[in-house]
Amino acid sequence: MAFEPKQPQKELKYDELRIYSDEELNNYTEEELKNFKIKHDIPLCEELESGPWPSFVADAKRGALHRRKLGQDRLLIEQDVIEDLLGQLELSFKDGEGHWKHGGIVGVFGYGGGVIGRYSDLPEKYPSIAHFHTMRVNQPASKFYDTDYLRTICDLWEFRGSSMLNMHGSTGDIIFLGTFTEQLEPIFFELTHVLQQDLGGSGSNLRTPSCCIGRARCEWSCYDTQDMCYEMTTYYQDELHRPAFPYKFKFKFDGCPNCCVASIARADMSFIGTWRDEIQIDQEAVQAYINGEIAPNGNAHAGKDWGKFDIKKEVLDLCPTQCMWMEDGKLMIDDKECTRCMHCINVMPQALRPGKDTGVSILLGAKAPILEGAQMSLLTIPFMKAEPPYDNIKEKVIEPIWDWWMEEGKNRERLGELIQRQSIRKLMEVLDIPAMPQFVKEPRSNPYIFWKEEDVPGGWDRSIEEYRKRHKR
Amino acid sequence: MALSTERLGRYNPDKPMENRLTDLGPRHFWQYFPPIIQRNYGKWKYHEILEPGVLVHVSETGEKVYTVRVGGCRFMTVEHVREICEIADKHCDGYVRFTTRNNIEFMVDSPEKVEALKKDLMSRKHVSGSYKFPIGGTGAGITNIVHTQGYIHCHTPATDASSMIKSLMDELFDLFQGMTLPAQVRVSMACCLNMCGAVHCSDIALLGYHRKPPIIDHEILASVCEIPLVIAACPTAAISPAKTPDGKKTVKIKEERCMFCGNCYTMCMALPLADKEGDCVTVMAGGKVSNRISPPKFSKVVVAALPNNFPRFPEVCKTVRQIIEAYAADANKYERIGDWAERIGWEKFFEKCGLEFTEHLIDDYRLQYDTYRTSTLFKYTDPAWEVAKAVDGV
């Protein structure tokens, strides 16, 4: 099954797009790097060069040397930008305080997001990071790349920016770290015209959606996470680039309840793959696990001797609903009782698989602690088919929710906070859905029900005169 | 159409709308899948971890894709990305993938290619000696730590990120390369309460935190900030309008009400909180995002404040190690840190981890009642006897 992009995409060939020659890309020796000193003294940063884990300081130094050897006439922002960044980092360690100014409104024309303005508060001391704006570059779904693409953005970013980037930022974008205001529009034009590639979201808008690896390389994905992520990102470009929301809004797409992109903790709208039929069982493979022929949990516990696999102890007894048992040597599952937690499937991936009738559960309102405390997403839609072009999800869930939130949400109020302020009952009205016990862990323990007039026989219109005929003052 | 080398490239500042392309979205994912991934999309049958950092996924078609996962710094230079490309070109037909936890995955289609790839990856070191591409981060071990920007780029941090993560991953390197724990341990790090990473649901979360109320820059506050928005931004209503002696509009802060969230600073640059002595690292534990066995959970605060001891954070490294070792020694197979703590009781968690339980760890914010123990079900540990002694109970 091949997928087609919304518009045909031109092939990117690095050799046709490149800025730097091979000689320029290999312009220093290991000996030079060993002896290289940046322009600032950075003893604290240099303490971070030892130890087995990759050292970002060592990497930054080679980036700095590479820029020096390229020379200023092959770079559009200062060649020593990395050196100044390390210098300011060193000072921040000493001061125990960062040295970036608060805010700074910059961007590209017509977009309200995608660029984060940043300025050093010591521009005289570190002039090459006086401006240090970042740009969020929308990553391809689940972050697969080819080297033509990566090498091309490297040349672009070395030439017009700091050479430093994040692969990737927390929301999933490629983050170009640090350039001057003058270069923002030129970079945007290169991205759109040459790379046919857009910026991601920032500010009070739809943030760059992200997804798990899905069907590309996982046997558990209950829907096409990449396809849905791509479709929602391209369909809602206006919401992504032009802030019209009370605050940020995140979509994340997890293929199964293992939640590898943490949608349940991080997304205002979490799409989590699930199924409504039976877990598929291969009884022969179950026996192979019992007989010790296949290591449990995909061999994830190989580093320690946990003893022989015990299906009762490791699977049946840990099942949270106790809906599994062995009968005549066969594994039985009462699927009506199953809550699809994935444990048994995780332990015996060669024997058990999610069902075939799959879709998504949609949960709403997760966020980090600012302001009223952290929230995880609320189970709202238990099951929904998720097939291109996802019109049911757009029309019945996403757009009514946005309409409500844009109408009622206060400045900087996340969806989860609006739900708490206006109640699940209000959410049910917005989505035109009935009550289900699955919304809650348990029913309320107080009887303070906000009865509505229409719920009560005879309504609320009563006469005190009539009342007094029955009850003297 | 090559990349432009003109100073302003294709952009004409005199006609900013000319030839402007917008709303293109991301590049389409399909073209970046290696052919074996394209051929087997949606056909994967099962997977196995062959050794720490090396996975095989087996398709219904019989094809197998081998993945070698290596740790990556989220912060990298184009030099590092070009080296990743060099490896991908040499071994993987020019394809590579990044994970949500900043790992890098190289995929090949035969065991022979795995061996050559592994050898190449482990041989690449920075001149200072650290690995560039350490293999690991799979199964019941520690995978890469997701983190925020810190002093590298952020204007609100209460600590630095890249340095703490480098130090901590050095400390936990054996656990990154091994699969010796009862279950996976996800460590996450955020430099302030804004938490641009999902640290609030991690097995271990490290959080930079301010501990001094904002300093008020009365001189400029009214001219750079919307005072009503600043007042509304405070979740505890600690901020109110005020006037300076010379009659300028400003705000005053009831300091005893401040919980140091920094939301006022987000709204107003005239209220900085950062402070060398005040800023600290809070350690949280027991959260998760997976629905496996038990529902997803928030991480709980287990150490209120550790010092910002730059650049190597020895106290943070020691504390995290201590928690993981206690967990590794005591938890059952498949049990996450939070599940373990709930089974043994949080009082036992502190005892086994050798962590002091201080008053700061008792919730006194809005939903504190949810954390009250309203039963006689508890275990005896030393702090309980201290309470008993304090009232002459024993």
Give a description of the structure.
The complex is a heterodimer of chains A (473) and B (394). Chain A contains 17 helices and 14 strands. Chain A folds into three domains: 181 residues, Alpha-Beta Plaits (2-Layer Sandwich), CATH 3.30.70; 147 residues, 2-Layer Sandwich (Sulfite Reductase Hemoprotein, domain 1); 74 residues, 2-Layer Sandwich (Alpha-Beta Plaits). Chain A is globular and about 90 Å long. Helices cover 32% and strands 12% of the residues of chain A. In chain A, a hairpin with a 6-residue loop joins strand 4 and strand 5. Chain A starts with 13 loop residues before the first helix and ends with a helix. A five-stranded mixed sheet of chain A has the order 6-7-8-13-14. In chain A, strands 1-2-5-4 form a four-stranded antiparallel sheet, covered by helices on one side. In chain B, the strands form three sheets. A five-stranded antiparallel sheet of chain B has the order 1-2-3-6-5, covered by helices on one side. Chain B has a four-stranded mixed sheet with strand order 7-8-11-12, with helices on one face. Chain B is globular and about 70 Å long. Chain B starts with 34 loop residues before the first helix and ends with a helix.
Please give the structural blueprint.
The complex is a heterodimer of chains A (473) and B (394).
Chain A: H1 14-17, H2 22-25, H3 30-35, H4 43-46, H5 56-70, H6 81-95, E1 115-116, E2 133-137, E3 144-146, H7 147-160, E4 164-167, E5 174-179, H8 184-193, E6 210-211, H9 225-235, H10 237-241, E7 251-254, H11 263-266, E8 269-275, E9 280-281, H12 283-290, H13 311-316, E10 324-327, E11 330-333, H14 343-347, E12 352-353, E13 358-364, E14 378-384, H15 391-408, H16 415-431, H17 464-470
Parallel strand pairs in A: 6-7, 7-8
Antiparallel strand pairs in A: 1-2, 2-5, 4-5, 8-13, 9-12, 10-11, 13-14
Helix pairs in contact in A: 5-6, 7-8, 15-16
Chain B: H1 35-39, E1 44-51, E2 54-59, E3 64-70, E4 75-77, H2 78-91, E5 95-98, E6 104-108, H3 111-123, H4 162-171, H5 173-177, E7 187-190, E8 204-209, H6 218-224, H7 227-233, E9 239-243, E10 249-253, H8 263-267, E11 280-285, E12 300-307, H9 314-330, H10 337-344, H11 346-353, H12 382-390
Parallel strand pairs in B: 7-8
Antiparallel strand pairs in B: 1-2, 2-3, 3-6, 5-6, 8-11, 9-10, 11-12
Helix pairs in contact in B: 4-9, 10-11
